[in-house]
Amino acid sequence: MTQLPLLDDLDVDGRVVLVRADLNVPLDDGEITDDFRIRAALPTIELLRERGATVVVCSHLGRPKGHDPALSTAPIAVRLAGLGGFPVVHVPAVVGPVALAAVEAAQPGDVLLLENTRFESGETTNGFELADGLAELADMFVLDAFGSAHRAHASTVGVAERIPSAAGPLLAAEVAALGEILHDPPRPYVVVMGGAKVSSKLGVIRQLLPGADLMLIGGGMCFTLLEAGGFEVGGSLIEESMVAEVKELLESEHGGKIILPLDVVVADRFAEDAETQITPAIGIPEDWLGLDIGPETSEHFASVIAGAGAVFWNGPMGVFEMAPFRSGTEAVAQAMAATSATTIVGGGDSVAAVRSLGLEEQMDHVSTGGGAGLEMLEGTILPGVAALGRWIEN
Fold first, then answer.
1. Is 371 a catalytic residue?
2. 179, 211, 348, 389: which one is catalytic?
């Protein structure tokens, strides 16, 4: 289990604390359409305020090419203030005289939100000047952006190398939950994998399969596995370049743990109003494409989940955005909500499904970081986590 310096290890009273949060929220014409990440960041900010810190928050937003007013963090400051019930000062700079002046004018308990860190060219390259500038703003640093901890950026790694730093509660909870799944899960340990492409998940499948008791695979990726098993998949999505690797995986020592769909919902075209039918997964008719696991598979997956000691789920079972192909994902979510097992949901689409069904509170842990979570489960030491490790007292 990864050792981390924690927020409780810092004496923040009367200090300026820079918090790297993950406030990369979806925007539609300047309006925030999902504030899940803002809500997730709030407890850490509130804790620091209660302990007498001046809180300076920073985050990236989108992928701007230089300064882009459409990706300003100003709307986030408004929403953060509304949710938190305290004033939030939006600072129209990341570093430099404007940012320094705003921090110097602030008092303990105040909250400031800096401009989009990616407006600065040195952010994604971990530039020395930007990291120095961020470190100059604060006495201490708290990394609480698990979703960005796999990136060696100035606001995640650079500043952590310069001033006393610790993991925020959100980051610490992510590392603990995923660390338990990786190293010592309650048994039986069931992994549920979905999503469109097996190529993006093969690394984590290989890492988790030896330690899992069973791995249930649905989503678009299952058709590449079915193809590799020699079955007819009709017009379903397959990654031809992955078939040989996947065949090797299925025939490996742990390949017998992989459970593929028994039946699938197929359609005559990729559309919400397409004609659909349920067919055996091992013989999908020509020109029909599989877009969800079928009812028999849903029932089987649910029964496996019901008997599990721990379940990790990443990726929907079908094209969840379209109503006719939503049932499999809903069945997995409902089964996880009902089980007494330890349940962890990782990955943006899985999290979105759980939240849309109102089941978020019934999961033990809902991860805020898709890519970072998968990298950690692949056995990678995340750069942001590694940078904090230097502050552990021996």
1. yes
2. 348
The answer to whether residues 122 and 203 belong to one domain is no
What is the spatial distance between Cα 288 and Cα 291, in angstroms, rounded to a whole number?
A: 10
Torsions phi, psi for 279 (to 5 deg): -135, 160
Report the domain count for the chain: 2
Taking alpha carbons only, the member of 22, 34, 25 closest to residue 148 is 22
Please indicate whether residue 197 is annotated as part of the active site: yes
Give the Cα separation of 385 and 156 in Å (integer): 9
Q: Which of the residues 37, 118, 151, 201 is marked catalytic?
A: 37
pLDDT of residue 370: 73
Rounded CA-CA distance 117/112 in Å is 14
Q: Which of 15, 79, 162, 197 is the catalytic position?
A: 197
What span, in angstroms and rounded, lies between the C-alpha atoms of 80 and 86?
A: 8
Q: Which two tokens stand for residue 275?
A: 């004609």
Question: What predicted TM-score, i.e. pTM, was given to this entire model?
Answer: 0.87
Catalytic-role residue among 234, 309, 371, 389 = 371
The kind and range of the H/E element at 298 are helix 295-306
CATH number, residue 362: 3.40.50.1260
Given a cut of 90, whether residue 3 has pLDDT beyond it is no
Q: Based on the fold, state whether residues 140 and 191 are members of the same structural domain.
A: no
Q: Is 15 a catalytic residue?
A: no
Q: Is the pLDDT of residue 94 over 70?
A: yes
- Digit-coded pLDDT (tens) for 103-127: 999 999 999 999 999 999 999 999 9
Q: Give catalytic status of residue 79 as yes or no.
A: no
CB neighbours of 100 closer than 8 A, spacing ≥ 6?
136, 137
> Does residue 394 surpass a pLDDT of 60?
no
Q: Tell me how far apart the alpha carbons of residues 249 and 255 are, in angstroms, rounded to a whole number.
A: 6
